[in-house]
Every structure is written in structure tokens, then in C-alpha cells.
Amino acid sequence: MFFLDNKRGKLNAANATNEENQTNDKTNESISRRKVLVTLGLGGAMLAGSTLVPRFASAENAQSNSNGDNQVLRVNNVEELKSLPSGQLTDGLYVFVGGYNNNGDGGGKLVRFVAGSTKVDNGGTVHKPINDKGHKSPKGEGCFEVVHHGAGDFRWFGIFDGSKNADDALDALINDPSIYRVEAHSDLNFVKRHVYHRSDIEVDFHGHTVTTVGIELNTLDNPFGAVLFFQGVATGVTQIVTLSDDLIEYSGIFEVADSSIFEVDSWWHAQIKNNPSGGAQRELDYLIKVTEILDATHVRFNYKLGWQLAKGRLITYKKINPAFRCHVRNMSFIGIPVPPNGTSLRPFPTWDQIGSNPVAYEFAVECDASGIKATKVFWPVVMRRYNTHYVTERCQLMNPEERDWGGTGYLTQQINVLYGHVRDCNTSNARHLNDFTCAAYCMVENCHGDGDEYGPFVTHGQFEHDLTYIGNSGLLSFANSGTTWGDSAKRVTVKKHIASRIVASKRLTDLTLEDCHAVVTYTKPGVKMANSGSFWVNMDGLQMRGCTAQEMVTISKGSSRAKRKNIIDSCSFGMLKGYEIARPIRSGTTQVGYTPSNGELTILNSEFYNVEDVTLGSINKLTLINTWFKGLPQVGGTVKVGTREIIMQGGGLVDCCFLFTGAWDKVGDVNNAKNKPDQWITIDGGAVFSGVNGEKAFLKSVDPSNVITWNFGNYKSIAADVNIGHFHIQGGMNKLKAIGSHFTGGKYEVADGAFGSGTYFFMTSCLEEGVNRAALPAENEMVKHSTSNFSIS
Question: Which domain of life is it from (predicted)?
Fold first, then answer.
């Protein structure tokens, strides 16, 4: 070791030995103050007036100063530091340590001797000197403490790779309130699951690998048993209020029992008592902040309510001291093997306690996770509950250890979260990339999942609302986890998305899909993913624009909450034989996602192609504007129509038939009262029918119980051969009006009795080119079709 003289920059050999110079003829070199600072990472900008290091002085000055304020010693390693003679250890003595084991090994640091300190030697930031007899000094006789500017380093603890477990070092650094940043400069191994209750800390692994070889068992069914778990703390202050009036949607003003215990900027866990129909059916369950005290029983929170809460329901408020700004960055995480299971039962009691995952947060605010790349994890890579205002970005999960067991194989699961932003993340062969459960006002952007049959993007349906997805790829499944959670979500917007499937058929209100595409996907060469290339959507404020599905769109209705219209615009859908465009009644079925649609839908500028045998099994009123149904080429197709009313303006049918089956609810079931069978069809606006199909007609009704009103205006019907009927009406009660229509080739086919008492058939001002009229009914007072038409043989 040696002293430094700041004035002369020369080595002063008094009371010091020079371990670096083993021969007397080697020139002694001094260490400059700048070099000390640079070594510590403080930089030249802090030279002037720095309070972290003393003025350099000669040994004589150092010896004459009982406080040791002016002297800096240098030693090669920690062992030499701890072995300094006790006579030289004066309060305030600074020592520069060249390395942990060897000078220059990266574990260098500046330490200061604090006389009387009772801190425990932790091997890195605190070192107890060894007395002259080779023992650590007794408690209270002082220790060396690292001088730092808030950034801690695992190398201070002699950790340079994964061969030495880094748990104690991690605890020493994060539990030191003066440390705000922890840095890793090598691979690390952890064997403990750490829980921290602090704020303002950043842990940056700089891309190095983190392993958990030999990690302790987790507790049972605990996704928060991560290597790093940052958790806020409940204060014990609780208040319960019974709502004296409805709490309306979008309200930021909440009723409380007594506002005197609430303070502006305080944080509270607000939870509504669950609905009786599901143990987790809670529309309000978030960590929110008080922004204003309004009166004795009302406060404003930083959250606009997504669902109306009825008078008489109970809200419980619990005061929380959150963890703020705890960030984890740039980690390459490798979990540990877990024996395969493949069942819904634990193969042995500790099976789900073996695996590891890197990061978890609970009751956390502004806590970000970035640059975490993981494989072989069990529970989610980034687990969150009761988080708000956070970012998860540039994270990756490849080939997790488990994905069939509930909650496993996720990149990030987010429960009861607000204002989250997940971006630039990706997964391969995982269960979920992004899982929202009771989430609101969150965004997912530029995230991509391959091997995605489990669904990279999901919500549980626990009353999520106001979620936005932009520029992602991978299967989407919304509100699809069961009645326990509520099967409900609201105002979900998805833009520019590629997916194997988009499943949004539960109680999802105001779903917006723009530029979304469902494509046929294969799980392995030649093995097609079931139902890939399809949309399943709930017709409750549904709006789709610019979307395509290679194989099917299926519409159901499980909720009636929306105030906006159902619209499908500029979309294209391939059809599959035997599938349903709109769900029909299934006797006795109450399963959400399989119930019929009793509302109105407008489809414009769209196309249904490869129609072979599909069903429009419900919908009260379907308005088709410039929309086409095209049969399978060389085969043709049939659309079985249970829709109560169809209005077609423009567009038309190509090689396709509308076969009317009577109104969808004519029989009724447990969900829908029995109704009349009446149907209406209006064709106008320049629509065009053409080609051939297996039913030998473009419009057809054969069920004797049908009651149909046919309105034909400005449209053109072109039969490809003489056997194709422009309309085929057989039995039932019918009313037909055709004014200004254009029929070419083919025939009309109307059975005797189809226009009996209480019906009419009126056809006038139509243009007919080579149409066989032989099967038209005989004219009478209610049947007129021979005059005022222009017929060309």
C-alpha cells in the first residue's frame, strides 16, 4: 500500500510498503486523483469540488491529521484492505482498492474507514478489518464502507461469473437505500427468491446471462416467486363504503365513507365486491391515486371508471405504500428444467415449485422491465399485479419450460393493471406473450408471437376496458377465460394485426378491428391449426374495417351494452363448408359465444368468397351495401338465411344462392322467446346476381312455414343457363314486388299456392331477356305480372 501526495504527485514511502514494486530499482509511480475518479466511473467533470474523495496529501500530512481527511491509501485487493494495521485506521481514512482478488480485475473501489460503525461485513460494500491477531474487529470498532455515487457493482463482492452465487450481493446492494442502480458485468447465478419493499432502484444486467441453478423451492402456486420481486406494502388503513347511488361509467369521482383519511397523492387499492355469478367478477380492482378531496364523502382518483357500479354495492379501500420506479433491464435469463406433465394434476407435490422466473411486481408504480430475454421459464417472465404507469419493452420469451399448466409459459401476465405499455416484445412457442386480466387504458405495440396456437394476446374477461393493440402479430383471444371472471370486456381496439385466429366472441362490447388479418397457420408441416384463418366476434358495437379472414368469420351475440352501430366495412372473408356466418339457435344453449345475434348489422364494400354451404343463422336486420357473396368456383354455394330482414344495396351474388329457412327465432329457446317466422328481402341499388349454383336459383324458399316479403328494385339477375331460377318460391306465404328489375336468361319458378289469400305478386316495369315465365302464377286481383314489363325473347 502507499500514500499519495496531492501536491507533488509522488510516492511517499513513510509508514507504507509498496507491494507493486518488488525490486528497489523499479521507479515508484503515483496514482492521480483523476485516475481514482475515472476508475470509479465518476469522470473528470466531478473533479472540481468533489465531495466523494479527499484532497491528496503527503504521508506526513495524513499522519498529522487525526481525522484522516486528507489521505488516500492504495491496496491491491480486499484481503490487503482488511489486513491494514489497526494503527493506520483513523476515522475518515480513504483507501483505493485496486481489485477484489487482484489489482485490475474489475472489483476496484474507493472505501472510507468509519470508526465506530456497527455495520456487518457483507463482502462488498462493507468490510470489517482483521485485527493484528488475525480476527475481525469486534462490533463497534469500525469498518470500511464503499464510497460511491449511487451505482453498485457485483464485482465489488468478488463475483465475476456464475460460479459464485450472487444472492447476498444482490440483497446488500438493493437493501442499501443509498444505492439507486445495480450493475452486472458478468453472468450471475441466483439460488434465492428475493422480495424487496423499496423504491427508486434500477438493476441492469447489461445483457449478461442469469441462471438459477440450485434455486430454492417456490411456495405453492406462486408466480410471484421470482428472482426479483418488488412489492409495495399495505399500511393497514382500510375503509368500506356501501354506494348510496349508482357510480356511473367514466366517473373519476368515487364515493367514500369518510374522506378525512384520504390525502392527495396517496395510493389506494380500490376493490368492488364481486358479482354473485362469479367469484372474480369485479369491475373495479385497481391501485389508484387520490388527486382531489371533494367533500366529506367524495374523492377524485386518477382513474375513469370503465363500468357502472350499482347502488348498494360495496367498495373496499386499502391504503398502500407502493414500490416506485424499480426497473429491471437487459437480462438474458435461463430457467431450470421441470419434469414434463401434460395433465391438469401435479405429478408430485412440489412439481410447480421447482421452476424459476426472473421478475415480478405487485403494488408498483412506474416500474419498467426492458431488454429481458428468457427461455426455460415456468411462471411468467414479467409478472405484474396492481401495477400502474409502467413499460415492458424489448423483452423476449423462447421455448418456456411449461405452457399447459395454468399461468405458465407467459412473457408477461398483468393482473389489475392500469396505464401499461407493452412494446417491441416477442415470443416463440410460448403460451401467452401478453395476458391482461382486469386491465384498463393499456397499449400493446409491435409485439410478435410465433408458434402461437396457445394465443400470444389474451384477456381473461375480468371487465377489461380501453385496451389498444397496434402493429402486432399472433393469435388474439379476448374475454375468453370463463364465467368466473365475467366473460366481459369493453372498448378494445386492434389495428394492423396478423393472427392465426381472432377470438372475440364472448361479452366483448365495442370491439374495433382495423386492418386485421386471420391467416391459415400450420403447427407443423402438413398439420393445420384448428380454426386458423378465422374471426369469431361478438356483435355488440362491433366495428371491423379493412380486415380479411382466409377461412371464416362467425358472429354471435353474448351482450347488449353498446350504443354504437355494428359495422363491417371493406373486409374479405373466405368461407368453409358447414360453418356459420351468424350463429343460429342451438336449443338449450346458453354458452356465451354460441348464442345468436338479435341485433342489426351493416356490411359494406365487403366480400364473402368460396361459399359452399354456410349459414346466416340469425341477425334481425342485415344491411348489405356493395357486398358480394361468391360461391366456390366450379361448385357454387348456398347461404342458408335465417336473418329476419336483409337489405341489399349494390353488390350481389356470384354462383351463389340465398336459401331462406324462416326467421331465426321462429321456434325460440331458453334465450329467445318464440317469434313469428316472417322474413323480408330487399334487392336494389344496382345489385347483380350471376352464375350457377347447386340450388338452381339465386333466391329460394321451399319451407311451407315460411312467410317472406320480397322487394326487388334496381338490380340485375343473369342466369348462366336455362335451369337457373331468378327466384324459386315454393309454398309458404309470400308477398313479392318487383319494379324496375332486369332479368336475363333462366326462369322464374313459383309453385301453386305460394301466393294465396293475404298475399300479392306485383311485377312491373321490369326488363326481361329470354326468361322462361312459364312457372309464374296465374294472374288475378292479387297477382299481376303481364303488363308494363319489357320482354325480349
Answer: Bacteria
As a whole number of angstroms, the distance between CA 767 and CA 184 comes to 83
Q: How many residues does the chain have?
A: 793
Grid cell in block for residue 167? 444472492
Please compute Rg for the chain using Cα positions.
Answer: 37
Residues 576-601: tens digit of each pLDDT:
999 999 999 987 778 888 999 999 99
Q: How far apart are CA 282 and CA 313, in angstroms?
A: 11
> Which of 23, 35, 28, 32 lies closest to 13, judged by CA?
28
Vertex 414: Cα angle to 409 and 418 (nearest 5): 165
b/e code 151-177 from CB counts within 10 Å (16+ = b): bbbbbbbbbbebeebbbebbebbbebe
- Average pLDDT of span 103-115: 96
Q: How far apart are the C-alpha atoms of 19 and 154, rounded to whole Å?
A: 26
Separation CA 149–CA 152 (nearest Å): 9
Measured between alpha carbons, how far is 235 from 230 in angstroms, rounded to an integer? 16
Q: How far is CA 75 from CA 9, 130, 189, 286, in A?
A: 17, 15, 29, 54
What mean pLDDT is predicted for residues 257-261? 98
CB 162 within 8 A of CB 127: no
Calpha distance 6→54 (Å, rounded): 10
DSSP string of 582-612?
E----TT---TTSSPP-SEEEEES-EEEEES
Which residue's C-alpha cell is 426497473? 327
pLDDT of residue 70: 55
DSSP-assigned letter for residue 628: E
Whether residue 133 is predicted with pLDDT greater than 80 in this model: the reply is no
Take residue 127 and report the three cell numbers written for it.
468490510
Average pLDDT, integer, range 34-58 = 38
Q: Measuring CA to CA, which residue among 90, 151, 152, 80 is closest to residue 122?
A: 152
Model confidence over 321-348: pLDDT tens digits? 999 999 999 999 999 999 989 888 999 9
Alpha carbon separation from 787 to 561, 709, 764, 767, 774 (Å, rounded): 51, 21, 7, 12, 15
pLDDT in tens, 308-322: 999 999 999 999 999
- Residue pair 552/609 in contact by the 8 Å Cβ criterion: no
Strands (E), 134-277: 143-147, 151-153, 181-183, 188-189, 194-196, 201-204, 209-211, 228-231, 233-242, 253-255, 267-272
**Virtual torsion, Cα 610, 615, 620, 626, nearest 10 deg:** 10
Mean pLDDT score, 285-311: 98
> Of 172, 180, 223, which is closest to residue 204 (Cα–Cα)?
180
β-bridge partners, 537: 504, 555
* Cβ proximity of 9 and 30 under 8 Å: yes
Expressed in angstroms, the distance from the first to the final Cα of the chain is 117
- DSSP class per residue in 317-335: EEEEE-EESEEEEEEEEE-
Helices (H) and strands (E) in the chain, counts: 4, 68
d(CA 742, CA 714): 7
Q: Identify the weakest region by mean pLDDT among 96-100, 184-188, 671-675, 739-743.
A: 671-675
**DSSP character string of 656-702:** EEEEE---TTSS--SSS-----EEEEEEETTEEEEE--TTSBSEEE-
Residues 534-555 as b or e (16 or more Cβ within 10 Å = b) = bbbbbbbbbbbbbbbbbbbbbb
Residue 6: predicted pLDDT? 39
What is the SS3 assignment for 274?
coil
Whole-model pTM: value is: 0.90
